[in-house]
Amino acid sequence: MTLFERVKNLSKKRGLSISEVERRAGLSENYLYTWKKSENPRRSSLTAVAKVLGVSVDFLLTGEDSEKDGLKKVNIEKLLDGTAMLTDRDGELTDADRAALRALISTYLQSTEGRERLKKYSNMELDDNGGNGDD
Question: Which backbone phi and psi does 64 adopt, to 5 degrees?
Answer without folding.
Answer: -120, 140
